Fold:
Amino acid sequence: MVAPLNFPLNLPLAKSGLDRAAHLRVSQDELDSLWAKGKIAHFNGEKFLTDHNGLIFLSPTDVRDGERYFLGFDESGTPYFLLHSETLHGDEESYHLLREANFNALHIGIAVHGQSLALWHKRHPQCSMCGEVTQPSQGGSVRKCTRCETEHYPRTDPAIIVLTRDSNDRILLGRQQVWPEHRFSTFAGFVEPGESFEAAVVREVKEEANVKVHSIEYVGSQPWPFPASLMIAFSAIIENPESAKPDGEEIVEIKWLDRDSIVAELKAETLLLPPPLSVARAMIDAWYLADGVDRPRLDSPESWR
Ligand SMILES: [Zn+2]
Structure:
């Protein structure tokens, strides 16, 4: 018997204390007056201006250059923007990657929205219709071509991720060739054009681990702006566990784990789990606790890859 996962999963990057107020993006006058009283997070390269309390906010008078993106309001009605520029505000040591920072829900909402937008803007300087330069528009929620006026919208690339189990509640994890030794995770992959989430789950697991899954259940989702993914998470039951084998290309090793062996392997340092920010880790933690037995949390050294 498999224990049901606690739903919804506690997904760190899905927390957001931000009201996006999308209807305000169309009025430049409105955006200008919000900017004048706004709190401005700064994104430079791939890093945010931070201190030990989280994001550091600039005021409008600090800003000389860069692109401005409207992100939304907090509960008290304070407007937030992202400044995307190459100018440093403070020293380089004050800038940190999203995955290095310790943010509360509001700051996560700001950072995840801001980083997704900034990385998309950076990658779309030209119009895909005519090749001319594009400019940010509508508070940074759109880029508009300066010649043909086509509007281009930010991309989000859906990827499924799936916790696979057999009927004895053992999980099956895989190791990608590019990962460090002992680093294992759940199976995942991008949804292909014209494909449903469920079909992508079946295909990815078959491709990577040579098994067939059924009883596919949605367990949650979170943005993964590295640079533009949305992870849609499922659990599924493996019909033919005896057939499991790695594809030898993307996945070079697989591992079956039950609740005792996962603890033993972590202790023996023959297993390295995905980072705490990831959906994969949240699913593994949720499975580990799903049988209701009181246990200490799984402890694994940090491994970003
Ligand atoms: Zn164009």
